[in-house]
Amino acid sequence: MGNRFHVKDRFADGAQYIDGQLRSGTSATSHTVVDPATGENVLTCRLASAEDVDAAVVAAARAFPGWSGATPAERSDALHRLAAVLTEEAEDFAYAESLQCGKPLKLSTEFDVPGTIDNTAFFAGAARHLQGQAAAEYSGDHTSYVRREAIGVVGSIAPWNYPLQMAAWKILPAIAAGNTVVLKPAELTPLTSLMFAQAATRAGIPDGVVNIVTGAGREAGEHLVGHPGVAMTSFTGSTPVGRRVAEIATTTVKRLHLELGGKAPFVVFDDADLEAAAQGAVAGSLINTGQDCTAATRAYVQRPLYDAFVARVAELMGTVRLGNPFDAGTDLGPLVSHAQRDRVAGFVERARAYATVVTGGTVPGGDLADGAYYAPTLIAGAAQDSEVVQSEIFGPVLVALPFDTDDEGIALANDTPYGLAASAWTRDVYRAGRATREIKAGCVWVNDHIPIISEMPHGGYKASGFGKDMSAYSFEEYTQVKHVMYDNTGAAAKDWHRTVFGDRT
Ligand code: NAD
């Protein structure tokens, strides 16, 4: 059981965190954070206006010279302290994350929170290891070296599916490299982003380095992206909103990092361990109630295994226990909102016209009737070009399709606009090697699907975006590289000047 602190008391001063202080937003619009398991009001808060975003950007700009001028060791120490504060408050974070998202407490406790603490500890170390090319006399007459510099104020926008982890993925590499941040969480789920910023203050990270503006996408989000005081936009969310963000960011020539939607294929070759693939498909498609950008969504199964795979996945889905996120026996919580549940149900209802709903496709009643629940769902017999195969559903829905040759399986896996993640299931090392080379995705797992680690990059190909979260690769997004070149000759008339004037040799 999580530590049930009083959310309304904790955020009585408001849901904006600017310059080290909680304060109320000044937009004309309020938003109510709802517990999707019950429909109950968790917190009603005034959203951020454009002026609130301006105040956050001013605070971040003011903090930048000091923070970017701190030594790597000082930033590293601060992040180590942040990891310690997060560890102390782990139960509070797990409780708040489950409350606002509807995640089973076991998921928040064993995945979201420890993943965030590990990420913080990773970036505490990485802050002291910014890398570049060795300084050398590449021209013969000069010494060249590279400075890796912080960019400035980073404006970040995050989605609601993993609010704590997404805030951490956006904030940690940015501040480890010396930037300051204004993050806009999704208005559905601001609690743990605000708590993360409070933890940063408790850890001694200076005011203004981490600011949170809880606001609507159209108002606060667009203002943040277009803000002339923001040097970089880092966005995680859907591909359509990402396109809009890219349009606005280009008007001020901002550096841009886009982590967008996914539609991950799960390719099962005919030599695979069927039981491992079936279990992997159920866990990989239902994690976080399917609201995971890397979730397994399209299971392509080679014909000899197809029928058995469909039967076993349906059987296993039937064993998954829906329930209140805070009950120890709950495997699957509700979706994040009733609107998201209805959107998911809409995909399944439309699919009944052209495919078979093998299991699920129902809204549970009884004790769960007030929550945004949806039964684990397996769809078979859909065409490759159909909506459920091509579009991101973002719910507990897996589609299974057969294939015959390896060429066909890989081609189908690549046949959507997305390219975030994929998995290949086989015991043949050559098949695995081919799948990992030929599937166009930022991550390809072999005989597993979902695990992530702080040391390795996460990011998309194709319409899933560009740039990397986590790992040392993320410093490529959050730093700019400057070439510094010193003349070593001391000569007034340098040899190369002859290309412009005179005949020097
Ligand atoms: P969304 O695109 O609707 O919203 C994401 C964020 O953008 C929210 O904070 C929202 O308020 C804001 N926003 C909305 N309109 C905006 C606008 N016009 N200008 C600026 N900001 C705006 O996404 P969502 O529904 O919150 O989250 C689900 C999506 O996120 C899925 O598509 C999922 O695949 C994606 N996602 C991707 C990754 C990844 O790493 N690639 C990770 C998690 C989620």
UniProtKB/TrEMBL annotation:
The keyword Oxidoreductase applies. It comes from Streptomyces bambusae. The lineage of its organism: Bacteria, Bacillati, Actinomycetota, Actinomycetes, Kitasatosporales. Belongs to the aldehyde dehydrogenase family. This is Aldehyde dehydrogenase family protein. Residues 29-484 form the Aldehyde dehydrogenase domain. InterPro entries: Ald_DH/histidinol_DH, Ald_DH_C, Ald_DH_CS_CYS, Ald_DH_CS_GLU, Ald_DH_N, Aldehyde_DH_dom. Pfam families: Aldedh. Keywords: Oxidoreductase. The active site is at E259.
